[in-house]
Write a structure and sequence with these properties.
The chain starts with a helix and ends with a helix. It has a single domain, classed as TIM Barrel (Alpha-Beta Barrel). The longest helix is centred in the first third of the chain and has 17 residues. The mean pLDDT is 97. By secondary structure, it is of the alpha/beta class. Keywords: Cell membrane, Flavoprotein, FMN, Membrane, Oxidoreductase, Pyrimidine biosynthesis.
């Protein structure tokens, strides 16, 4: 059924159809039996997949990755689609429009997307206000970043503002320094600036009545030496874990003609092409940290087998994004049905 619907959806520009579909989902949810129908079609009914991590109880290990619901506009609706948790963002302190459109592209031959969204969002205060009004009790992650106009030497101030704005409304934080779509952002992954940033956030965190789990989202393009630095920094700053991985700037091995890929231009590649590298990064971190760093896996997860691969590599939880686009609203139900 979704195969036919997908053909229709894919005939429209990706960003436009995303907003149209999500508005449609909100309409369905608002109908008298809408929530019941969504839960019946897409909900996950088993308790056998519950996970407890950081003192949080996840009803299942399959979450929605950051980037899909940047502004926390659809939390209640997404909760009906079976997700064990939803990560909003990336949220910045001030609203910003992001990069010029078009900025989201499909590569159907590769079951992939390329995006250069540029942290388009309505700001941390707006996201916090919506989270305050939500009805569902689904676990929420807050993915935070810096505004494009903020120089790297002042980036810590942006992350601090996001932390304070969202603290009361999210269950965990993810520090995003790995998007390829904000100029110079990935430079913050270098050892010293990253250590200073994470240490500052952890000091703020420990000053709260109850500290929240703070995780770091990393790129799949890091070398093993850089991953060693990440492991050391995460352990030194006592971070709660790692989200592995973000999108890649690598374009090797694609089935889509090179001319078409080059015409799209810059952006982060997600979906099936990043699957293997994401698993390699997860396995490396798990092995070289002696399994002491909890990992949320994201990258190329379309099926239960894909999710199981990530869990076997050392992940505690998984997230979908591109797989959700290609597989449709029952993806969580199917993955959970197939997990061991």
């Amino acid at each position: 059924m979704y195969t036919l619907i997908k053909k229709l959806l894919f005939s429209f520009p990706p960003e436009n159809i995303h907003h149209s579909v999500m508005r449609g989902l909100k309409v369905i949810y608002s109908l008298p039996l809408g929530k019941t129908i969504l839960n019946a079609c897409c909900g996950v009914k088993t308790n056998r997949l519950e996970r407890e991590l950081w003192g949080l109880r996840f009803k299942n290990p399959v979450g929605l990755a950051a980037g899909f619901d940047k502004d926390a506009k659809y939390i209640d609706e997404l909760a009906c689609l079976g997700f064990g948790f939803v990560e909003i963002g990336t949220v910045t302190p001030l609203p910003q429009p992001g990069n010029d459109q078009p900025r989201l592209f499909r590569l159907p031959a590769d079951k992939a997307l390329i995006n250069r969204m540029g942290f388009n969002n309505e700001g941390a205060v707006a996201a916090a206000r919506r989270l305050q009004q939500r009805r569902s009790n689904i676990i929420i992650g807050g993915n935070i970043g810096k505004n494009k106009a903020t120089p790297n030497e002042e980036a810590v101030n942006d992350y601090e503002k996001c932390f304070h704005a969202l603290y009361s409304y999210v269950d965990y934080f993810v520090v995003n320094v790995s998007s390829p779509n904000t100029p110079n952002l990935r430079a913050l992954q270098e050892k010293e600036p990253l250590k200073q940033l994470l240490h500052h956030l952890q000091v703020l965190n420990m000053q709260q009545t109850k500290a929240k789990p703070v995780l770091l989202k990393i790129a799949p393009d890091l070398t093993n030496e850089q991953l060693d630095d990440i492991i050391e920094i995460v352990q030194d700053t006592k971070l709660a874990g790692i989200v592995a991985t973000n999108t890649t700037i690598d374009r090797s091995g694609l089935q889509t003609p090179a001319a078409d890929v080059n015409a799209i231009g810059a952006g982060g590649l997600s979906g099936l092409p990043v699957k293997q590298r994401a698993t390699e990064v997860i396995r490396y971190i798990h092995k070289n940290s002696n399994g002491q760093i909890p990992i949320i896996a994201v990258g190329g997860i379309f099926t239960a087998a894909d999710a199981q691969e990530k869990l076997d590599a050392g992940a505690s939880l998984v997230q979908v994004y591109t797989g959700f686009i290609y597989e449709g609203p029952t993806i969580v139900k199917k993955i959970c049905a197939g997990l061991k």
